Amino acid sequence: MPDPQPTIVLVHGAFAESASWNGVLERLGAAYDSVAVANPLRSVAGDAAYVRDVVRGIGGPVLLVGHSYGGMVITQAAAGDTSVRALVYVNAFAPDTDESAMTLSAKFPGSTLADTLVQYPVSTGGNELAIGQDQYHAQFCADSSDDVAVLMARTQRPITEEGLGGKLTGDPAWRSLPSWFVFGDADKNIPAEVHRFMAERANPRGQREVVGGSHAMAVARPGEVAETIIEAVRGVS
Predict the structure, then answer these.
(1) pLDDT tens digits for 135-174?
(2) DSSP reduced 3-state for 64
(3) Angle at CA of residue 36, ends 143 and 192, nearest 5°
């Protein structure tokens, strides 16, 4: 008997929050069990442990979907977990061992994120980073409306320096699990050349590059993102 259809677990990245998946969830509809996780954005290891807790709570097969830094998290969380059936990277980092979000984003030129960041110390140590309100629209979600961009900027969840600088430990899950990639060629956080590099080495079952797609493509282009996720579900069900 074939496995039941996996539950789709959506993991947002830095400078976003779980509601950034709303458009994708609407398009997945009632035909697909899905949940958007509130990613803590504290550290790769800690965030991955939290996602594993969510997966255990679901208690069945899952498909992990990560956006941006969320790709770091799902790659770590899925390692050795037999309930994870596949990985979907949405404008996301797909790291190899000892790689971090910082090192990958700088692998090829083109990212303008660093110049838009504001930071402040936090009581637990180190700094927290966010995108400046005035620069958020152009940097993060240029293909979204002004109203949507304002709301996203005001509700963004900051990430710690430890999170952005944290390295993947152990073998990456994409070496042993089927993967799908969807990304925009106008991503200003992670250059398209970096996305292509990560996808090529992961040898995904599906790859979609969206012309004009910004970093926040799950918000501005939810149809293309949902289509990729549905392809992945069908590919492992």
Answers:
(1) 999 999 999 999 999 999 999 999 999 999 999 999 999 9
(2) strand
(3) 40
- The residues that bridge with 66 in the sheet, in sequence order, are 11, 89
Separation between Cα atoms, residue 205 and residue 216, nearest integer Å? 23
Inform me whether the pLDDT recorded for 3 exceeds 80.
Answer: no
- pTM for the predicted model, two decimal places: 0.97
Q: What is residue 136's three-state secondary structure? A: helix
CA distance 215 to 192: 10
Q: 6-44 in b/e burial notation, b at 16+ Cβ within 10 A?
A: bbbbbbbbbbbbbebbebbbebbeeebbbbbbebbbbbb
Our measurement of the distance from residue 144's CA atom to the centroid of its chain's CA atoms, rounded to an integer in Å, reads 18
Q: What is the radius of gyration, based on Cα positions, of the chain?
A: 16
CA distances to 35, 52, 73, 211 from 169, rounded to whole Å, are 26, 15, 11, 33
| Residue type (1 letter), 227 | E
Alpha helices, DSSP H, located in 3-159? 22-28, 44-58, 70-77, 101-105, 136-140, 146-155
CA distance 213 to 85: 27
Virtual torsion, Cα 236, 219, 142, 68, nearest 10 deg: -50
Q: Residues 174, 24, 180, CA angle at the centre, nearest 5°?
A: 20
* pLDDT (0 to 100) of residue 140: 98
Q: Which two tokens stand for residue 84?
A: 């994870």
d(CA 90, CA 24): 11
